[in-house]
Amino acid sequence: MLPAVPGNDAFRSCNSSADLGKQVSCNGPCLTYIIEDPDELGKKLYVRGCQSELSQVQTSPNYNNGNGGQHYCEYDENFRRPTSLGTSVQTKILVERCVNTTLPCNKRINFPGESDQDNNCNDSKNNNTVNNEALSCYECEDTNENCKKGKCSKKYCVKSVAKVQGTYSTKKFCSNVNPFGTNEVCSAYDLTVTLFNINNIGGHSNICFCKNKQYCNSSTRLTFGLSTILMFFAAKTFF
Question: Which branch of life, at top level (predicted)?
Answer without folding.
Answer: Eukaryota
